Amino acid sequence: MADTAVHPAASSEPRGPKPRKKLSRNNIIIYGTLLVVAFYYLLPLYVMVVTSLKGMPEIRLGNIFSPPVEITFEPWVKAWSQACTGLNCDGLSRGFWNSIRITVPSVIVSIVIASVNGYALANWKFKGADAFFTILIFGAFIPYQVMLYPIVIMLREIGLYGTLWGLVIVHTIFGMPILTLLFRNYFTSLPEELFKAARVDGAGFWRIYFQIMLPMSLPIFVVAMILQVTGIWNDFLFGVVYTKPDLYPMTVQLNNIVNSVQGVKEYNVNMAATLLTGLVPLVIYFVSGKLFVRGIAAGAVKG
Amino acid sequence: MESSISIRDLSLSFGAVKVLRNLNIEIGQGEFLVLLGSSGCGKSTLLNCIAGLLDVTDGQIFIQGKNVTWAEPSDRGIGMVFQSYALYPQMTVEGNLSFGLKNAGMAKDEIKKRVARAAEILQIEPLLKRKPAALSGGQRQRVAIGRALVRDVDVFLFDEPLSNLDAKLRADLRVEIKRLHQRLKNTMIYVTHDQVEALTLADRIAIMKGGNIQQLASPNEIYNKPANKYVADFIGSPSMNFLEGVIDISGAPQFNSDVMSFDISGYEFVDGPTGGPAWFGIRPEHIVTGELLANAPVQFDAEVELVEPMGSDTLVWAKVEGVPMHFRMDGQAEVRSGDQMRIGFDPARANIFNKETELRI
Amino acid sequence: MSSERPNGLFRNIPAKVAAIPMIITALVVFMGGSLWTMAYSLTKSKLLPKWKFVGLDQYERLWSTKRWVVSIENLFIYGVCMLIASFVIGFILAALMDQKIRFENTFRTIILYPFALSFIVTGLVWQWILNPEFGIQSIIRGLGFTSFEFDPLYNADIAIYGILIAGLWQGTGLIMVLMLAGLRGIDQEIWKAAKVDGIPTWKTYLFIVIPMMRPVFITTLVLVAASIVKVYDLIVAQTGGGPGISTEMPAKYVYDYMFGGQNLGQGFAASTMMLLAVLVVVIPWAYLEFGGKKRG
Q1: Nearest to B57 among A1, A14, A17 (CB)
Q2: Which pLDDT tens digit goes with each residue over C169-189?
Q3: Helices (DSSP H) in chain B: which residue ranges?
Q4: Sign of dihedral through CA atoms C284, C286, C287, C288?
């Protein structure tokens, strides 16, 4: 065993952990900065919530940072069911349901197509596949504005311009680069032996996809879903270009409500409407936490 | 002689997890100590504590007689070499060697002298202007050693420095590190999980498990007189044969198991003959065959099950009375599975451990 | 398996079928669409695209339009400030978060949440906070500093900085997360080596870690730059381009001319300019990132 002789000096200092002040200068700087930053980031959310719970008279009198004296949920009700865009006065609810009708099929279609595509690129390379993929990734950087009008023409040609399915196609197209990259990288990271073993066992393209790849890829599908749901829910440009007013997604409707020039500005209703629009992505964000971070990191840091 | 490094009652816990438990080690001037153990045994953690990269929970660390328990790593008089080399990738080799010295405000001439000396010792002069990315693994590790060398310190710490290299290079660099130690005569602490590295390099080996030191002794003693069953099992490849049974000391000491019993009067007990349930261990290379049987007081008939020719020697897996045993034979030995053969050993070379405590008896 | 090797075109059929959407998107929409827009930017298209070639007339008109020039200036100011500020703040925040702090998850959640929001939401919130009658200006005046002035959205000279504040609020979290991922990717032994060498933390960051993170920086830079060029929703929601034309941006110019002004040619020319701006950033990067590796 080790030398266990008792040393005369063993009891004297320094001994044990290095003494550290709880409030060292470093810690004050670190936590101080982070607290100030956190304050700056939370402030707008706080202002929105507080304002949306106040009545108009109180808003005109007080400042926007003070908590409501009298909490009222009327602005929320009004934003949901009565706020006006132009002549329509049936509130944001219509936009909300439109956004749901747009988001659900767009997310499903885009993920199905991109995952199969990513799988083909990762495991079934064919000649020219890399060239198409490169163009696709390049496409992610092309400003949408360049492709806006040609897509209008294409959609018009197939009779889908101004329809829900037209917009679904647009979301599928513009989601494709990032999703394909995401899935391709994920499938490439799976052990190739697995794929080879399945081929030796005689499984084909679809069989391997459904029975081997899919069951192993749940997390990446969740990441892709988070990415797409927030992305499509938050879209404004495509909604405004490719749909008609009765199909406008929530973001477009929100902007029309808040930035309409008619009538008195009801800030509390506006804030409630804004919060309502932000609610879906916020809930997804707070619930998904690390997966959300993983999604944007995977999407952003190259493959 | 004053010890170079003295570790006294050192403990480290992360929350409720005790990583190091009350360790005491004295390391002599110029000694080469190897910390050996499987992953998670605390060997790297101990090294990081000595380097000052981890704050200890209790205890003290002395380096060259100075209490450095609270000192910064750079003030401890140590140099350290890492598994991943940890070279600064955007600096040249020269930059890597001199960055720390420059930062400490050393005179340019002195820096130049030290870099030149380190480069000469490690034979990396032609590489000085290159960047790490343009070096091979072995060259990178030399540069990493050089970075410790230029600090001109008394103590070198190595954290699994050869683990990222392929087998051939590892053997070469191992020899070089040994040569370096002979030339510089610094105190060196070397962490590894590779027992060959440990046995070949060390003056003393500390075998660690679960934050404790199982045995701290010379390679020879560790190999021949392991302090407990864990050490006996850990050291040696292929590992030791173990037989389960009872020691009977009513007459001449005798080992009895369900299927065999033999006389062990040649065995040197630690505290005189001790009876009771025990593990009887014998290394594969201490089991003999053929002519050597003349010197083997204990002999059995074995049935060969499997033969592994390894070039320099042959490893035979056999059964004795249904109990598996493996042993080494000459590389030229002609054995086939199914063969019957006579084997034997000298109990003097055996290791016997108490069944409960697993300590050597 | 048949002994004859099948024709290359018919091998691997399901994979090729699966790739059809990608091929159509890449060739027809991305390449075809871009080329179509570039071609028609050379025509006199008004309400409808018409193939009446006029050379570079649209571009001449574009660059002599004050609104476009202001848009480009704004994009430049916004882009440069946004890049510098978001990188500096994002990196500092990431470095702070990397100090083994408590509540790291909480801080990260707070700093990143605006990124989950729509630009429309961001724009509207900051429009409200920067409103001089209710927002920060009125609060600080209420505290007694009656001459305090902070009304970026109502002052044409500084309105673009009001947009910048909102843009930073939304985008810095992303940079921080990417930088933090980069920092976490640095070999911990590098830090240990620097400590043994006695190099202070700030020097380790400056001379060792930041140079090591160059690939992360460049990739992030390209991503952020490409997204800055596209800025549209934020402007529409926060200022609508005003006051006057002081916060106009190229993307908005394109939209307004294409779908509002019934002047497609101008829209095509402006969007082609946007494409050029992005290519100037992306092509050298792609060359460095992917072209260089194959050779070296």
Answers
A1: A17
A2: 998 998 999 899 889 889 999
A3: 43-51, 93-103, 108-122, 137-149, 167-184, 195-201, 219-224, 229-234
A4: positive
Residue C5: C-alpha distances to residues A127, C1, C2 (Å): 16, 9, 7
- Ramachandran area for residue A263 (φ above 0: left; ψ -120 to 50: alpha; else beta): left
Residue spans per domain, chain B: 5-233, 236-354
The pLDDT of residue A68: 82
The phi, psi pair for B230, rounded to 5°, reads -60, -50
Inform me whether the C-beta atom of residue A18 falls under 8 Å from chain B C-beta atoms: yes
C193 touches chain B (CB under 8 A): yes
Q: Find out whether A239 and C119 touch, Cβ atoms under 8 Å.
A: no
Confirm whether A184 is domain-assigned: yes
Closest by alpha carbon to C197, among B53, B296, B188, B83?
B53
**Residue C14 binned pLDDT confidence (cut-offs 50, 70, 90):** confident
For chain A, list residues with pLDDT below 70. Answer: 1-12, 22, 86-87, 261-263, 297-303
From the list C62, C176, C187, C70, the residue with the least C-alpha distance to C114 is: C176
Q: In this prediction, what percent of chain B has a pLDDT beyond 90?
A: 66
Dihedral sign, Cα of residue A172, residue A174, residue A176, residue A179: negative
Q: Cβ distance C247 to C230 under 8 Å?
A: no
Whose structure tokens read 């040197």? B268
Q: Which fold has domain B5-233?
A: Rossmann fold (3.40.50)
- From 2.40.50.140, 3.20.20.370, 3.20.20.120, 3.40.50.970, which CATH number describes the B236-354 domain? 2.40.50.140
Nearest-CA distance from C83 to chain B in Å? 24
Going from N- to C-terminal start, the domains of chain C cover 1-40, 57-295
Q: What is the ipTM of this complex?
A: 0.86
**Distance separating the N- and C-terminal Cα atoms of chain C:** 40
Domain extent, residue A150, equals 100-248+280-300
* Partners of B282 in beta bridges: B241
Longest dimension (CA), chain A: 93
Task: Quote the CA–CA distance of C223 and C49 in Å, as a whole number.
Answer: 32
A6 Cα to chain C: minimum distance (Å): 30
Q: Determine the Cα–Cα distance for residues C118 and A278; give it in Å rounded to an integer.
A: 7
The CATH number of the domain holding residue A116 is 1.10.3720.10
Q: List the structure tokens of A131.
A: 């060239």
Short-list B184, B164, B175, CA closest to B120: B184
Chains near A (3 or more Cβ pairs under 8 Å) = B, C
Distances (CA, A) of C50 to B73, C36, C47, C53: 74, 12, 9, 9
Helix (H, G, I), strand (E, B) or coil at C133: coil
| CATH superfamily, domain at C57-295 | MetI-like (1.10.3720.10)
Q: Closest by alpha carbon to A270, among C126, C132, B19?
A: C126
Please state, in angstroms and as integers, the Cα–Cα distance from residue C57 to each residue in C73, C256, C267, C269, following that order: 22, 19, 13, 9
Asked if the C-beta of A2 comes within 8 angstroms of chain B's C-beta atoms, the answer is yes
> Hunting for tokens 């392991």 — which residue is that?
B226
CA A301 from chain centre, in angstroms, equals: 16
What is the count of structural domains for chain A? 1
* Distance separating alpha carbons of residues A27 and C118, to the nearest angstrom: 34
pLDDT tens, position by position, C195-250: 999 999 999 999 999 999 988 888 888 888 888 888 898 998 888 887 888 899 99
The pLDDT of residue C279 is 87
Nearest to B215 by CA among B353, B312, B75: B353
Q: Do B104 and C189 touch (CB under 8 A)?
A: no
Detail the DSSP E strand segments found in chain A: none
- Alpha carbon C74 to its chain centroid, in Å, reads 14
The minimal CB distance from C198 to the residues B74, B88, B90 is found for B74
Counting one residue from A and one from B, how many pairs have CB atoms under 8 Å apart? 45
pLDDT at B158: 94
